[in-house]
Automatic annotation (TrEMBL):
Family matches, as InterPro entries: PsdUridine_synth_cat_dom_sf, PsdUridine_synth_TruA, PsdUridine_synth_TruA_a/b_dom, PsdUridine_synth_TruA_C, TruA/RsuA/RluB/E/F_N
Reactions catalysed, as given in the entry: a uridine in tRNA = a pseudouridine in tRNA; uridine(38/39/40) in tRNA = pseudouridine(38/39/40) in tRNA
Protein name: tRNA pseudouridine synthase
Family label: Belongs to the tRNA pseudouridine synthase TruA family.
HAMAP family linked: TruA (MF_00171)
One cellular component (GO) term of this entry: mitochondrion
GO MF annotation: an example: tRNA pseudouridine(38-40) synthase activity
Underlying gene: PUSL1
Record domain Pseudouridine synthase I TruA alpha/beta: where: 19-122, 168-284
UniProt cross-references to Pfam families, sorted A to Z: PseudoU_synth_1
Coiled-coil boundaries: none
Lineage: superkingdom: Eukaryota
């Protein structure tokens, strides 16, 4: 993507939003080489081969997600260089073409937009929001409806102390060194992040649950918003907040954990399962928010 366009050809850069159920993938990033594991990006780039671009199309992903994590709306930029005399694809045509050639039913391209040639999907993002889904009242794994499996964390408890969780969450708000909530494996220049919003709220009854089951199952939503997050930061924060909700930790202990800056402490090694986590939205403040911001569907969270 760094080479100059061939004579007479036109290179167009696009921002695309896409969603996926992460259960079958080794994360969103492409897996290169002869490994059997595969990422969402592999399928997107395979579909893009059918665009007949002069140069191979590569997706630059906005937000990396781990194996088993889902996305209501992730984003990426890509360059398509059509042959001489052919105009750039209209965004709606690009969207339709990618969806037509996608070979995995758990991936869907939502929308596409033309963006400037120097636009970068990862660096230009001004806000990312993650949603984590919990359910209580499910004491055995086979009690969870099949349509909700791999889409939430089923806690073997009848209730959560949501007020305590909300109190604990306040300690995470603002700008902090979040080293205590970072997993090893993704070194970054600085562990300082600004958590703009964190919410803990009861979710509406899942439409995928029968009325009889809905009387004993209660869904909960946790949301986290920041410009960027550390590796597994959301899953670690979720695990600690759940420990508070179950009475295993006091709200004030979350502040102590945060200030310790120790990722290997007694409570910091807790990690919420990947299958309850969704990348909900990616926002670009430098673009027209009305046209280039796409939020995924609501999973019953109260606003």
């Amino acid at each position: 993507m760094g080479s100059a366009p061939a004579a007479g050809s036109v290179r167009a850069r696009y921002l695309v939003y896409f969603q996926y159920v992460g259960t079958d993938f080794n994360g969103v990033a492409a897996v290169r080489g002869a490994q059997r594991a595969v990422g969402v990006q592999n399928y997107l780039e395979e579909a893009a081969e059918r665009l007949n671009s002069v140069e191979p199309v590569r997706f630059t992903i906005s937000s990396r997600t781990d194996a088993g994590v889902h996305a209501l709306s992730n984003a990426a930029h890509l360059d398509v260089q059509r042959r001489s005399g052919r105009p750039p694809f209209p965004p709606e045509v690009l969207t339709e073409a990618l969806n037509t050639h996608l070979r995995h039913p758990a991936i869907r391209v939502l929308r596409a937009f033309r963006v400037p040639s120097d636009f970068h999907a990862r660096h230009a993002a001004t806000s990312r929001t993650y949603l984590y889904r919990l359910v209580t009242g499910c004491h055995r794994s086979d009690e969870l409806p099949v349509f909700e499996r791999n889409l939430c964390w089923a806690l073997r408890a009848d209730r959560l102390d949501v007020a305590a969780m909300q109190e604990a969450a306040q300690h995470l708000l603002g700008t902090h060194d979040f080293s205590a909530f970072q997993s090893a494996g993704s070194p970054v220049p600085s562990p300082v992040r600004t958590l703009r919003r964190v919410s803990v709220s009861p979710g509406l009854t899942s439409p995928l649950v029968t009325p009889q089951e809905s009387r004993k199952l209660q869904f909960w939503s946790l949301e986290f918003e920041s410009q960027s997050f550390l590796y597994r930061q959301v899953r670690r924060m979720t695990a600690v907040l759940v420990a508070v909700g179950l009475g295993a930790l006091a709200p004030a202990q979350v502040k102590t954990i945060l200030e310790s800056q120790d990722p290997l402490g007694k409570h910091q090694t807790r990690l919420a399962p990947a299958h309850g986590l969704f990348l909900k939205s990616v926002v670009y403040g430098s673009l027209d928010a009305a046209s280039c911001t796409l939020h995924g569907p609501q999973f019953g969270s109260h606003k």
